[in-house]
Design a protein that fits this description.
InterPro entries: DUF1203. Pfam families: DUF1203 (PF06718). The chain has 2 helices and 8 strands. The protein is mainly beta. The protein folds into 2 domains: about 1-75, first zn-finger domain of poly(adp-ribose) polymerase-1; about 90-150, no CATH class. The strands form 2 sheets. The chain has a 5-stranded antiparallel beta sheet, with helices on one face. Strand 7 and strand 8 (about 145-150) form a beta hairpin.
């Protein structure tokens, strides 16, 4: 399995002034260095750096399960996350909301669970044992913000 960042084409479009999920240009703010996870490099935006705040919906189409919420990106280009391990942003909180989705982007009921950070990988492996699980989203357990998507290794 692999933790994935937001699609680079979307990140590039937002950085170039393109519209977010609500058709608006991203807001700019200065990062405090904590609680500001970039959904591209999957690290906190460094303290003092400019970050982009925008509405995002990590789903292909609009439907009742297509949650939209705030996310951050480093304003300056950053290296999109491509490591094999667990990303840095999943070490910054004691627990996260983990839930599985089907191929038609529907939440698979009963899979959503507040999961201690040290158990995310094991829980995701258990979920991927199910044939109906296409991907898994990891969100903030406190604010429900989308953080990263886990996909099967191909």
């Amino acid at each position: 399995m692999k933790f994935t960042p937001y699609a680079q084409t979307f990140v590039d479009d937002i950085r170039a002034g393109g519209p977010d999920a609500y058709g608006r240009v991203a807001e700019e703010a200065i990062s405090s260095g904590t609680g500001t996870p970039c959904r591209s490099c999957l690290k906190n935006v460094p303290k003092g750096d400019t970050m982009l705040i925008l509405a995002a919906r990590p789903f292909r189409t609009l439907h009742p399960y297509a949650e939209t919420g705030p996310i951050f990106f480093c304003k300056a280009p950053c290296m999109p996350y491509a490591d094999d391990g667990t990303p840095d942003i999943l070490s910054r909180s004691p627990e996260f909301l983990v839930k599985a989705y089907s191929a038609d982007d529907r939440i698979l009921y009963g899979t959503g669970r507040i999961t201690p950070k040290d158990e995310i990988t094991d829980y995701a492996r258990t979920l991927f044992d199910r044939e109906d699980v296409t991907y898994i989203d990891v969100r903030s357990a406190r604010n429900n913000c989308f953080l990263t998507r886990i996909i099967r290794d191909t």
